[in-house]
Amino acid sequence: MRRRIGRKASRLSAIMRKKPLRPGMILDLDRVAPDAHGLLDRQLAAARAYSPRPTQLPIALFQAAVQPISKPCGDPAFGWRAVADASFASYRVPGNHFTMLAQPYVQHLAQAIDAALRRRE
Length: 121
What we know:
Number of domains: 2
Strand order of the largest sheet: 1-2
Number of helices: 4
């Protein structure tokens, strides 16, 4: 499974290198300040160039219950298991990517972080 996910990630990375994403392909640039367009270009370039390597460090994924895409890349762990040579734990918390950091959901996130830290003790 780990190899299959790694192969999928490699193929996706290769596709992105051949046909670079532009901010206008994923965002409505009319809603972004013009002076931020260059920053978006640099962020996408950094994302294309990044290639995660396996790590011996424990990984904890705090996953929002509401996802904009159902299991991207076919992996509920979003590819993190492919780099986790040590322990991997996933914690599902209420909310979406943004609301999980605000009341009332942030309390659930805090509890999940506490559980992850206790697991490492």
